[in-house]
């Protein structure tokens, strides 16, 4: 009788990494700094102090290679971490591939995604700084849920502006945030100047992530006991997510494997950075030998593959610092695809810089292909993936199918950054054939991006 | 610095139990047999052969103490098993209790509950018997989801009749079944005689679990290549669920603990039996020394605490054998409480027998108390529980609070049989104060049960 197939590679709690990895320490060249939109000069800590506690501001520009994870944060992490690494035997069998597919599964977290990895330390550092309340925005709802849970751990209030279209379409996400104790408003709301301005011009506005950011930032900036929290894009967010990749390195080593290809989906970049940065450290240390590392983005919001590398705002209203990043223009409104977590006009400055340096690849995929991979994955591996990671799954499946022809026993690692339990209407639309794909070949998309890029901010000075 | 708290007790895949435990072997007295409703005589294998494969019929009356789990079933189990045992440190801290609370979490499964533990072997044995399709009913939707997943593993078709009220109120459950490849009909449907009869008399009927069973059984009985699968109540179902308790025994031993109190919710009894039977084996072997074992049922459907121990049908239409069980009457329609999985008029004959023998206790709880415990649990432990296990959580929390006064360091083990991601509207109703509690003191409930009990079937012969 053959030995049983091993599906999961587990780490015990005492094997959980106790440090985050700071890739800034190891980059061949540093990424361009954020600029103050009024002066055109690099922002300093004082420019960020109205929104963030000093510990997080320091992490944003940290130069040491590792940052210790506070004991209090580790204690919360251990509710679900280390997360499992799975070998996708049943998917491989369905494909008949000689490739070996591994997926690092973050859906075991309280929010059902990787987002609590940064929500918990952000809540911790804010609580330690004496902050009473955190505000934030949420689109798909994963980030708002994560922050609601994290705030409950450290006795912080949590106020979330959820993009109106998502607030209406995803009532389950709102209820989950409320169950964790958060207050949730649809955005635009009449609680902020930014919201009221939008409602005055368009009472039926469906909102956007950029506008919801403006509302949450506006409220936080007005009260010294209230801070703002962001779920992706920034350096300290990606830093916190590196625990994913650190665990995956340990888990692959446990089964004597090393990855040939790593694929992750990218919206703001935190899931992708979290998984891949520790592997990039090893690759840089090995003089470039190591896995191919590939970001997969939606074809209808292709910031890496079609955007411009330029200074732009992180939000619609222009309240944030200017970030050097791949962008489609800060007022570009992506298609309402179901992978709401990937509908962001920009890309993390760190990921953008790595892409410019040739250290990561990128490709764009249409959502029907992604859902097809998601359904195949659900029926073979038993997990219904969130729409976001189906982008990476589609890439992994295609690579595994190529290996059927070439016979390569390629080791493919993918980030399964969340489950799709609260995204099931998207599967319903796919199964009924109601999904429409928009690709870069659509002239409307090209024209919308071209127009948004004409409105990139000028750099003063 | 104190040692970090350990939240999870994990087993490796090669520590997964490879046998189910058959409590029939160890009972002081055997439970009364199922009877044929036409003859009043014990049913034989031939009476069940139109619905179930011989392997499962044999397991229904097996006399050996253990049944080997087939390799093919083990391979699917290992997608999520062994499931984690958690120590609820953060809940304990919130309560300030000296009690130690453990929960065995089955929400990591593909369906998000314990149901795949029996769906997978049922699909396997049916596939091995050459069956082409399985039919079943589902109320809350957990069972239908589990069977849909299991059928996908063994290339079986799966056809589910979902109670109309649940079909309309829980669209996410239906989509999840369809994502796993099943076909889902609302019940009553016009596809069966039972459904058409109901629709003729009440075109707007919301359906019931008993009627959906009648529809699924009717379709299976008409085609030799189609069988029926049941998700609770029967001996072979509870047998398959004992892997939960076998794992929990190993996990508690790993941390040097033994339970003083075990609480589990009961609908048909499979979650409760699955966790507790292996502990009952140890208790019987120790001459009765061991944990108190307590079933917790909804106050509005109190089959153990208020029902009659009598022969009754498992379904509304009277298509099943007569089962000796605690029952509220086979045509009793429970309140539409949110714990849909506990809305069943009867109780597993095995659990009913154990209750009569004094080997398990029972209590009934109202849903607002249960949701209060569920919200506290979500905010401390990070998992939003399904409405069903909040009944057991409420009992565990009460016991832990008693320990605050007595100072007892009691070890409480509870079955967290599923997550509540697809039940979030129930939390919304609770948080908004919209839930109504019905207790045994309500005369309407007592009258409805008394009336249903006058319609218990007569035993022929």
Question: What would the keywords be for this entry?
Answer:
homodimer; 461 residues; Rossmann fold; 4-stranded parallel β-sheet; pyridoxal phosphate (chains A, B); Trp_synth_b_CS (chains A, B)
What does this entry look like structurally?
2 copies of one chain form a homodimer. Chain A is of the alpha/beta class and 461 residues long. Chain A has 2 domains: 25-32 and 48-67 and 114-234, Rossmann fold (3-Layer(aba) Sandwich), CATH 3.40.50; 81-112 and 236-453, Rossmann fold (3-Layer(aba) Sandwich). Chain A is 41% helix and 16% strand. The first copy, chain A, has 19 helices and 15 strands. Chain A has helices at 45-48, 54-60, 71-77, 89-95, 116-128, 142-153, 164-169, 171-179, 193-201, 209-221, 235-241, 243-254, 270-285, 303-306, 349-356, 367-381, 387-406, 424-431, 443-453; strands at residues 8-9, 19-21, 66-68, 85-87, 100-105, 133-138, 157-163, 183-187, 226-228, 261-265, 292-298, 308-313, 322-327, 361-365, 411-416. Chain A has a 7-stranded mixed β-sheet, sandwiched between helices. A 4-stranded parallel β-sheet of chain A has the order 8-7-6-9, with helices on both faces. A two-stranded antiparallel sheet of chain A has the order 2-3. In chain A, helix 2 packs across helix 11, helix 3 (71-77) runs antiparallel to helix 5 (116-128) and helix 6 runs parallel beside helix 8 (171-179). The longest helix of chain A has 20 residues, at 387-406. The first copy, chain A, starts with 7 loop residues before the first strand and ends in an 8-residue tail after the last helix. The model of chain A has no long low-confidence stretch (mean pLDDT 95).
């Amino acid at each position: 009788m053959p030995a049983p197939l091993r599906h999961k590679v587990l780490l015990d709690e005492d094997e959980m990494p106790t440090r985050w990895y700071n890739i800034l320490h190891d980059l061949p060249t540093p990424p361009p700094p954020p600029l103050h939109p009024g002066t055109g000069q690099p922002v300093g800590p004082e420019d960020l102090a109205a929104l963030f506690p000093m510990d997080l501001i320091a992490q944003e520009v940290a130069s040491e290679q590792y940052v210790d994870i506070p004991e209090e944060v580790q204690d919360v992490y251990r509710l679900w971490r280390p997360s499992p690494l799975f070998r996708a035997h049943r998917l491989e069998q369905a494909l008949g591939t000689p490739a070996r597919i591994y997926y690092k599964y973050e859906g075991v977290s309280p929010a059902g995604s990787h987002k609590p990895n940064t929500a918990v330390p952000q809540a911790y550092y804010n609580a330690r700084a004496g902050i009473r309340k955190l505000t934030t925005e949420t689109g798909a709802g994963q980030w708002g849920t994560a922050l609601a849970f994290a705030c409950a751990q450290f006795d912080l209030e949590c106020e979330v502006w959820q993009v109106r279209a998502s607030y209406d379409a995803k009532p389950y996400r709102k209820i989950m945030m409320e169950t964790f104790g958060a207050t949730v408003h649809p955005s635009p709301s009449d609680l902020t100047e930014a919201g009221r301005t939008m409602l005055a011009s368009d009472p039926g506005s469906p909102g956007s992530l950029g506008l919801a950011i403006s509302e949450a930032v506006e409220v936080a900036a007005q009260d010294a006991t209230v801070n703002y929290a962001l779920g992706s894009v920034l350096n300290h967010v990606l830093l916190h997510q590196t625990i994913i990749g650190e665990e995956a390195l340990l888990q692959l080593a446990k089964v004597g494997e090393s990855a040939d290809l790593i694929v992750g989906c990218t919206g703001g970049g935190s899931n992708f950075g979290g998984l891949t940065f520790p592997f990039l450290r090893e690759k840089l240390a090995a003089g470039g030998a190591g896995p191919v590392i590939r970001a997969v983005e939606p074809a209808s919001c292709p910031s890496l593959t079609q955007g411009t590398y330029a200074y732009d705002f992180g939000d619609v209203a222009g309240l944030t610092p200017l970030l050097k990043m791949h962008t489609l223009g800060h007022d570009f409104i992506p298609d309402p695809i179901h992978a709401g977590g990937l509908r962001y006009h920009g890309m993390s400055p760190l990921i953008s810089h790595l892409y410019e340096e040739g250290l990561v690849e990128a490709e764009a995929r249409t959502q029907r292909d992604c859902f097809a991979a998601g359904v195949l994955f659900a029926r073979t591996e038993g997990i219904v993936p969130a729409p976001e990671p189906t982008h990476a799954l589609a890439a992994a499946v295609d690579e595994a199918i190529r290996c059927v022809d070439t016979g390569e026993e390629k080791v493919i690692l993918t980030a399964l950054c969340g489950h799709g339990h609260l995204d099931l209407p998207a599967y319903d639309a796919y199964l009924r054939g109601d999904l429409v794909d928009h690709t870069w070949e659509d002239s409307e998309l090209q024209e919308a991006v071209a127009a948004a890029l004409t409105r990139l901010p000028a750099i003063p000075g």
